[in-house]
C-alpha cells in the first residue's frame, strides 16, 4: 500500500501523519475543508501547517466529507484511507448537534456507501475514534468491584461534589485504567458520533473484507495544534490565554484528569495500525497511560512560559464533562508493540517551545463559554 488518503489531513493529527508517511515513501492525498474554526480565515496564505504539508509533497483536495463528489475524487487510486476528518469538541457538540451528526456520522456513511457500491482500490481503513465513547472511565468499588459511573448529577456538582460515586452503593471509587472491553456509554453528542463512526467502519469493513482499525485516541497535544480553536484542546486554549496575559479559570476543583498523549506517539500508533496485519478489525486505546489533572496542566504551562497570570479554581462546570479517564495500553502494546515515547513533562516542554515561535491571535475562549451559558450547559 503506497497511496494513502488522509481525510482531515490538514489538521493537527493529519498534518503530522502526512509528513511522516511522505518521509517513509508513501504518496499522500489530503481531503480537507480547511475549517475556519481550526485553520483561521486564510489558511492557504497564513497557515504554516498547511504550507508545510503542501511543500512536503502531499496532494491536496479542498473538499468536504459531506460531499459525495469530493469523496469520489479523493478515493481514486487510493490503497488505504485514514479517516480523521471530524467535528471535535465535547462542549460544542451539545448544542451544534446537527453539524456533528452530519460530519461525523453522515460523512462516514458516504465513504462506506461508496466502498460498498462502487469500484475502488481501498485495501484498509483506519478511523479515528475517541476516548469520549467511554464517557466516564473505569473505576473500582471496594464492595462491587469494577463499575462504570453514569454522568454526575447537577445537584452534586452545584455543591462542589465532583467525584464519581459507585452507581450501586454511592460510595467513593478508585480510578483504574480504561481498557477496550470497558463499558461504552458516551456522555456527549461528540462521543456518541464517534461511537457510531467506529462501529460503522468496523461493521462495513468486515462485511466487505476490507481490514479496518479504530484508534480510540486520548487527549492529543503537541506542536501544530490549533491555537485559534476555542472549543477543544486544553493546552492550546490555556496557552492562548497565557500569551494574551489573561488569567486561567479552571472548572470544578482542578482535580479532574485526562490522559494527555503527545502527537508523535499518536502518529507512531496510527502507522502501526496501517502497516501491521495484527491490527486488522481491532480497536485500540492510544494514550500515555497516566492521568494528569487540569491544575497540573495549567501550572506547568505557566512555568514553561514564565508567566505571572493567576490560576483560579472556579467551581464552575460544564454539563457533559467527565471527571476522569485514562487508557489501558495492554492491548496495543501486546498486538502492535506500541508504547508511548514521550512523558508529559517532555511533551509539554516541546509544545511550549513551539508556541513561543507562533503568532498568537486574540483568544476567543470566552465566546465558547458564553455559548454554553446561554444554553444552560455551563454552571
According to CATH, what is the topology of the largest domain? Rossmann fold
End-to-end Cα distance: 50 Å
Please work out how many helical segments DSSP would assign. Answer: 15
Main β-sheet, spatial strand arrangement = 3-2-1-4-5-9-14
Domain NAD-dependent epimerase/dehydratase: 4-139, 177-287
Family: Belongs to the NAD(P)-dependent epimerase/dehydratase family.
Pfam family, one: Epimerase
Protein name: dTDP-L-rhamnose 4-epimerase
Please, could you describe this protein's structure?
- The chain has 379 residues and is an alpha/beta fold.
- It folds into 2 domains: 3-138 and 177-374, NAD(P)-binding Rossmann-like Domain (Rossmann fold, 3-Layer(aba) Sandwich), CATH 3.40.50.720; 139-176, no CATH class.
- Helices cover 39% and strands 16% of the residues.
- The protein has 15 helices and 16 strands.
- The strands form 5 sheets. The chain has a 7-stranded parallel sheet, sandwiched between helices.
- A hairpin with a 3-residue loop joins strand 6 (139-141) and strand 7.
- Helix 1 runs parallel beside helix 4 (48-55), helix 1 crosses helix 11 (263-275) and helix 10 (234-243) packs across helix 12 (294-304).
- The mean pLDDT is 94.
- Pfam families: Epimerase (PF01370).
- Belongs to the NAD(P)-dependent epimerase/dehydratase family.
- Residues 4-139, 177-287 form the NAD-dependent epimerase/dehydratase domain.
Amino acid at each position: 500500500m503506497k497511496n494513502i488518503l488522509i481525510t482531515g489531513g490538514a489538521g493537527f493529527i493529519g498534518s503530522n501523519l502526512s509528513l511522516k508517511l511522505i518521509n517513509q515513501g508513501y504518496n499522500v492525498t489530503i481531503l480537507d475543508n480547511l475549517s475556519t474554526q481550526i485553520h483561521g480565515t486564510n489558511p492557504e496564505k497564513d497557515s504554516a501547517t498547511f504550507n508545510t504539508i503542501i511543500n512536503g509533497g502531499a496532494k491536496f483536495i479542498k473538499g468536504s466529507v459531506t460531499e459525495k463528489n469530493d469523496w469520489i475524487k479523493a478515493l481514486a487510486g487510493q490503497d488505504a484511507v485514514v479517516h480523521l476528518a471530524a467535528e471535535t469538541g465535547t462542549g460544542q457538540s451539545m448544542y451544534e448537534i446537527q453539524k456533528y451528526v452530519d460530519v461525523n456520522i453522515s460523512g462516514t456513511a458516504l465513504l462506506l456507501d461508496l466502498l460498498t457500491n462502487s469500484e475502488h482500490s481501498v485495501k484498509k481503513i483506519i478511523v479515528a475514534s475517541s476516548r469520549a465513547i467511554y464517557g466516564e472511565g473505569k473505576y473500582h468499588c471496594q464492595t462491587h468491584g469494577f463499575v462504570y459511573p453514569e454522568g454526575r448529577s447537577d445537584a452534586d456538582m452545584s455543591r462542589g461534589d465532583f467525584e464519581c460515586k459507585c452507581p450501586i452503593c454511592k460510595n467513593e471509587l478508585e480510578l483504574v485504567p480504561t481498557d477496550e472491553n470497558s463499558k461504552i456509554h458516551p456522555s456527549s453528542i461528540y462521543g456518541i458520533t464517534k461511537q457510531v463512526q467506529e462501529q460503522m467502519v468496523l461493521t462495513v469493513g468486515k462485511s466487505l473484507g476490507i481490514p479496518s482499525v479504530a484508534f480510540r485516541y486520548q487527549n492529543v497535544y503537541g506542536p501544530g495544534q490549533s491555537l485559534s480553536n476555542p472549543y477543544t484542546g486544553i493546552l492550546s486554549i490555556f496557552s492562548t490565554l497565557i500569551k494574551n496575559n489573561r488569567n486561567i479559570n479552571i472548572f470544578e476543583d482542578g482535580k479532574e484528569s485526562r490522559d494527555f498523549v503527545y502527537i508523535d506517539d499518536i502518529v507512531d500508533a496510527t502507522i502501526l495500525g496501517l502497516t501491521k496485519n495484527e491490527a486488522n478489525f481491532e480497536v485500540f486505546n492510544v494514550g500515555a497511560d497516566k492521568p494528569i489533572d487540569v491544575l497540573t496542566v495549567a501550572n506547568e504551562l505557566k512555568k514553561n512560559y514564565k508567566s505571572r497570570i493567576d490560576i483560579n479554581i472556579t467551581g464552575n462546570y460544564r454539563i457533559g464533562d467527565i471527571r476522569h479517564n485514562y487508557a489501558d495500553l495492554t492491548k496495543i502494546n501486546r498486538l502492535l508493540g506500541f508504547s508511548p515515547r514521550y512523558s508529559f513533562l517532555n511533551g509539554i516542554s516541546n509544545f511550549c517551545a513551539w508556541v513561543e515561535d507562533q503568532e498568537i491571535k486574540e483568544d476567543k475562549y470566552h465566546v465558547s463559554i458564553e455559548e454554553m451559558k446561554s444554553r444552560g450547559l455551563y454552571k
